[in-house]
Write a structure and sequence with these properties.
Elements (H helix, E strand, L loop, with lengths): L2 H19 L7 E2 L13 E5 L2 E10 L3 E4 L1 H13 L5 E9 L5 E4 L6 H11 L4 E3 L5 E4 L6 H7 L10 H10 L16 H6 L2 H7 L1
Parallel strand pairs: 3-5
Antiparallel strand pairs: 1-2, 2-3, 4-8, 5-6, 7-8
Helix pairs in contact: 1-5
Length: 202
């Protein structure tokens, strides 16, 4: 299986897990081959706590891999151009045998600065290179004690990557709107207010 195929499979798994763990109250949208589209698209679009979260997912089994500014360019553009609803860009990193880690790109107008904040806050070993790429190291290179101290969770003990993504997104208070701003009316309730739709139900 190619790296792209593995990435698409993981996107599908995470989307399904998010739907299941939230009992369908959060329905993530997958953009499919987002990187090949002429229109900027995220890998995953997750509506949560009153805003949209545009997620770029990177998977790897290597000792180390780099995320370039071009890798996140689409979600940054998409998030900054979306003016109808508050939208924020996120980078998720998934190493084989370890739980996925997700964090917001805090300064979308300055990707290198965003990478530095991401690297400083992640429990993974990461740094920004001289060329402006985000370099992330596989937790396998750490001892068990070091992983435990950093709070890095193995895939075996994790509740799943979907729950992990939701946990990390919900923990981002900056992107969470207050409960007073969040409407919790479902689509069905809205449709019932339409006389034409109500007549069809009779």
């Amino acid at each position: 299986m190619s790296r792209q195929s593995r990435g698409l499979q993981k996107e599908h798994e995470i989307a399904n897990e998010i739907f299941e763990v939230t009992n369908g109250s959060i329905i993530p949208v997958r953009a499919g081959y987002s990187g090949n589209s002429a229109v900027p698209l995220p890998d995953l679009l997750v509506p949560i706590a009153g805003s949209l979260r545009a997620v770029e997912l990177k998977t790897s089994s290597q000792d180390r891999f780099s995320v370039t500014p071009e890798d996140v360019e689409q979600i940054v553009e998409w998030s900054m151009d979306m003016t109808e609803i508050p939208t924020y860009p996120y980078l998720s990193v998934k190493f084989s045998n370890y739980e996925v880690y997700t964090a917001r790109l805090a300064y979308p107008w300055n990707i290198e600065r965003s990478f530095r904040v991401w690297a400083d806050e992640t429990p993974l070993v990461a740094n920004v290179t001289d060329s402006g790429n985000l370099s992330v190291h596989n937790p396998t290179k750490l001892t068990y004690e070091e992983r435990s101290e950093k709070g890095i969770t193995s895939a075996q003990t994790s509740p799943g990557d979907g729950p992990a993504v939701i946990r990390d997104l919900r923990a981002d208070e900056y992107a969470n709107l207050s409960t007073d701003e969040i409407e919790t009316v479902g689509v069905y309730e809205v449709l019932k207010e339409n006389p034409d739709y109500s007549a069809q139900l009779k």
